[in-house]
């Protein structure tokens, strides 16, 4: 039987399968077929066929409760995609290091934590270094706050209620309302600042990377003596330029036109 075409010229069943995966990802834990049908707007028999196929392929799990969740086979795909994102970003991060003299990072939001997926270190002997793959609390880091600034307040509250807001330094924000006010300021000015909130004596400027498949951010960080508040006038425009270039790489429409 021929596949029904989607409105954009794609294959309808493939689009529906990915819609189901996206709904499951948003649900977070597990979800019933009836909920999938309601949220997708598809008939229950169609949802049943899609999930049965995805279960057989390992991309979805059926739980003893008869609900469904994302399957383990997606982990390998996610890890490969993360490595690719890191490799795509490194040349642009290197440009940031060349222009600012300080360490440049890229991170994404993985459930409730910020995860560094790429870094190009400064050539200074005194520099910031973060291992790729390191997971940090989002409420006290520049990249973390740039990630949270892309979410609504209710989602942010949910995240910090699950992680807590432990104080890494005396400057760490530990109150959700204070954090939300800081995120609103970040959205207004277009960048986030870590003022020694993760590590004393370190300052970090960070901006969101829009258009990525998951909340993503890039940053420049270094000793506060070198990365001064006034240096934002030089660093932030460079960060925003690189973020736009990264966004272009995630733009599916642009990719289709190549």
UniProtKB/TrEMBL annotation:
GO terms for molecular function: DNA binding; DNA-binding transcription factor activity. Residues 73-252 form the IclR-ED domain. Residues 11-72 form the HTH iclR-type domain. It comes from the Bacteria. Signal peptide: none annotated. GO terms for biological process: glycerol metabolic process; negative regulation of DNA-templated transcription. Keywords: DNA-binding, Glycerol metabolism, Transcription, Transcription regulation. The keyword Endoplasmic reticulum does not apply. May be an activator protein for the gylABX operon. This is Glycerol operon regulatory protein. It comes from Antrihabitans cavernicola.
């Amino acid at each position: 039987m021929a596949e029904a075409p989607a409105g954009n010229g794609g294959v309808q069943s493939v689009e529906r399968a990915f819609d189901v995966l996206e709904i499951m990802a948003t649900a977070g834990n597990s979800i019933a077929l009836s909920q999938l049908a309601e949220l997708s707007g598809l008939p229950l028999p169609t949802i049943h066929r899609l999930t049965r196929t995805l279960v057989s392929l390992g991309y979805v799990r059926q739980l003893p409760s008869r609900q469904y969740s994302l399957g383990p086979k997606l982990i390998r795909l996610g890890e490969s995609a993360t490595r690719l994102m890191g490799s795509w970003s490194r040349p642009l991060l290197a440009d940031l290091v060349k222009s600012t003299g300080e360490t440049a990072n890229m991170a994404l939001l993985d459930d409730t934590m910020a995860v560094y997926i790429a870094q190009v270190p400064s050539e200074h002997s005194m520099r910031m270094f973060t291992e790729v793959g390191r997971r940090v609390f989002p409420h006290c880091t520049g990249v973390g706050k740039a990630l949270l600034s892309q979410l609504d307040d209710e989602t942010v509250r949910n995240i910090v209620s699950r992680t807590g807001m432990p104080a890494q330094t005396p400057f760490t924000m530990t109150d959700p309302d204070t954090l939300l006010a800081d995120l609103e300021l970040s959205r207004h000015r277009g960048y986030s600042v870590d003022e020694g909130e993760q590590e004393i004596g370190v300052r970090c400027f960070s901006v969101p990377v829009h258009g990525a498949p998951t909340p993503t951010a890039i940053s420049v960080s270094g000793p506060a003596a070198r990365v001064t508040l006034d240096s934002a006038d030089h660093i932030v425009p460079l960060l925003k330029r690189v973020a736009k270039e990264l966004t272009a790489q995630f733009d599916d429409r642009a990719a289709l036109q190549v």
